Amino acid sequence: MKNLLGYISVLTICGTILASSMSFAQSKPEQNPVIILKHLNFKSFFMQFYRKEIRYLKMQDQQSDEAVGLDDGKGNVNYAVFMPVQQYKNVQGEERYIVWIQIYEQDDGKINNGHPDHPLTELYLFKKLANGSYQFLSQSYPEMNVSGSWGESHLTADAFKGIHRVGKNQMGFTYDGGYTSTGEVSYWKNLIVLNEKGWIQQYPFGYSSSNIGAYTENDPEFGAYSIDYQLKPNPDADGLYPVVVRYSKSGKMDWRNDIPENATKRTAYFNSKKNCYVWKTDQCL
To answer: Which of 77, 157, 233, 274 is deepest in the core (most CB within 10 A)?
Structure first.
């Protein structure tokens, strides 16, 4: 880290790092530019995608040697960490590589770790070329919000172990999150689709909630419900597979009156124009 920061300082003095500008994620054209990295490491990545935003940053609670400071364009310097590269095979059996970074807001060298605080997570997809270099394919949608709390992301390296086929030509995986507020305890699941063309996208993929933070399960005021999603492989699907949505509820459910009868099942289909799963009425879930 010290060597990199020294390198960055020299670049700053030489004037090769300019004032803050729009990040690559925000300025990405509709057609992905042809970007080739000789190595898939943190120095190559940050110098390619964030050269102009790199800033010197000294962290008091530094957790990684593979990290840099990034100007957010608003007068702040965030702490960006290069996470371990993940590898998987796509539908065609070809090797793919996921570079993911987590960008933390910090104050005086300490990561902000309040209840709602969590890092911005960005995913970048690459394929390996015959000469050993790596070609950029796609990246996560700029507004894609990977959930988290207490200064940490809900997305961990273990989630990538579950990458599997989720559509006709798409691979993806799910991760779990949760939140507790004023007696209500909520859990959810999100599906991340690793599109090789266009954006890497995230979709809601299940939700449950209860007031167990305020009442025990035996209390007459206790209530809980869950909405579970399960992919339904369909060779005729044009894109993402349909999902079977199953509802369950128990106890006193007076804060949600839109949950169907217990054990109700519905099938939803992906609408590419609306970019969401829909019922037959074309209403997004």
So the answer is: 77
- How far apart CA 183 and CA 128 sit, in angstroms, is 49
The 10 Å Cβ neighbour count of residue 119 is 22
Place of tokens 């010290």: 2
Q: Which residues contact 111 (CB under 8 A, 6 or more apart)?
A: 59, 61, 79, 104, 105, 117, 151
pLDDT of residue 236: 85
Residue 172 β-bridge partners: 164, 193
**135 φ, ψ to 5°?**
-100, 130
* Contact by Cβ (8 Å): 142, 25: yes
DSSP 132: S
Asked if 131 contacts 106 with a C-beta cutoff of 8 angstroms, the reply is: no
The pLDDT tens digits of the residues spanning 144-165 come to 999 999 999 999 999 999 999 9
